[in-house]
Amino acid sequence: MARVIKGRVRVASAAAAVSSLAVLLAACGGSSSGGSGASSSSGTGGGSSAKSLSFLAINENTTIPTTLTSLSQKECAAENKAQPLQIKKQAQGTLDQQLQLLAGQKALPQLFISANSPDLTKQLFDSGAILDTGEAATSAGVSDDVLPAASSSIKALYDGKQIVLPTELNIEGIWYNKKLLADKGISVPTTWDELTAAFAKLKAAGVQPISNAGKGGDGWGITRWVGNYILRDQGADALKAVKDGSAKLTDAKYVADAQAIADLGKKGYFGKSPTSIDYATALNTFMTGKAGFIYMGSWALAAFNDPKQNAIGADNIGFMSFPTVSGGSGTADQTPANVGTALAVSKTAYDKDPATQAWVKCIIANYGTVALRDSSQITGFKVASGVTVPPLSQDIQTKISNIKDSVLWFEAYFPTKATTSSQNNGGLLGSGKLSGEQFMKTVSADLG
Question: Do 279 and 218 meet the contact criterion of CB atoms below 8 Å apart?
Fold first, then answer.
């Protein structure tokens, strides 16, 4: 996996990055003029083309540069001849600061990895530095090449705007060991009550029911359970209501929903010591047959399809949506999704440069096929027929293609401080050492 996706939450430095953005953007003056970060062949602005297509990548993700390079050699060869691809790399931890610096200098490259912080990406867009790629795709006639699930996820993050390109699309849910469940006489659960009954049966048989990490920042493996239970109980807008201020995490309903997960921890369903389990260990526990279920995103397919890592075999792994909750208003077809590492486009560069426009159109039309074909990467773009992928990946790709609406993860609307607080305390909740009320109070205190 190129970058462990925790719902676009990455580095603590994002908070400092966002706080100084306004100062740097004061020098930007919007996107009506200025450079694109690549020198123009004529230096005259509107209608001229840069000598190269500059792309700012991050060291931690190799799939996007690999895919763009393949496109430059094949599907987008004509676009690359007109404007050769040039890749520069940046450490993920300093990406946000670099984007601020470049934005302040009116020197953003034509393409770049979107900011670690969704708040920073939104502020760059509001300043006029980032292109509305949804509008651009519509104008270019390739909007149908963006999957509805990807568009829905992006718009949910960015106030109804599709401002990044979904070079990843991860759906999330509960993966299960088919043989283990069958051996214990357990049918695939469709409701929360059936799921907890399955947990109890596995625990009684000496099998750990759930394998999810709870160590430090990897506590997101448990907070995902909290967020999904809230969405199934109170409906798809329950977390947005907290963002909008019409509800609080400390309200009785939210506390009760968090307590439902704390109850799993009290019963030992997450294992003996979730706070000592990191992401890699949790994944390994499931893939070696020591646990019945794991909540995870489709980014784990790379590990599931690797026989060197997956001792139980990919054909023994099933995927189920987070189940419905009795009396809840949420439905099982509301699928948690995120676009992981995404691409942003400089508005200035795109607006003035026909060659860049042609490149972006070609990427939207072809990226999904090439990424799946060459890197087994599921993206938010349509895929041409005839691409051969492992059966489990194909199953998930089909599910993604059929998604019309998606929901976000627990911390999606949180500022960095609250996200860190939530994920660092997730393990304590999953071990039963922290009550739902204590957990929600702790996180709520950092919402600002």
Answer: yes
* Band of pLDDT at residue 338, cut at 50, 70 and 90: confident
Distance CA 360, CA 76 (A): 10
Give 60-80 pLDDT, tens digit per residue: 888 999 999 999 999 999 999
Distances (CA, A) of 303 to 99, 288, 307, 403: 32, 12, 8, 24
14-24+35-169+339-382: CATH topology: D-Maltodextrin-Binding Protein; domain 2 (3.40.190)
Q: What letters, b where the CB count within 10 A reaches 16 and e where it falls short, cover 429-442? A: bbbbebbbbbbbeb
pLDDT tens digits for range 84-137:
999 999 998 899 999 999 999 999 999 999 998 888 899 999 999 999 999 999
Contact assessment for residue 115 and residue 103, using Cβ atoms and an 8 Å cutoff: no
User: Which residues are within 8 A (CB) of 56 and not within 5 positions of it... i.e. 6 or more apart?
Assistant: 88, 89, 90, 98, 99, 102, 109, 111, 112, 113
Is 254 within 8 Å of 410 (Cβ atoms)? no
Domain ranges in the chain are 14-24+35-169+339-382, 171-336+409-444
Cα of 384 vs its chain's centroid, Å: 23
- The answer to whether 338 and 360 have CB atoms below 8 angstroms apart is no
| pLDDT given for residue 47 in this prediction | 55
- What's the pTM value of the predicted model, to 2 decimals? 0.79
Assigned superfamily of 171-336+409-444 = Periplasmic binding protein-like II (3.40.190.10)
CB atoms within 10 A of CB 216: 14
Distance of CA 178 to the CA centre of its chain: 26
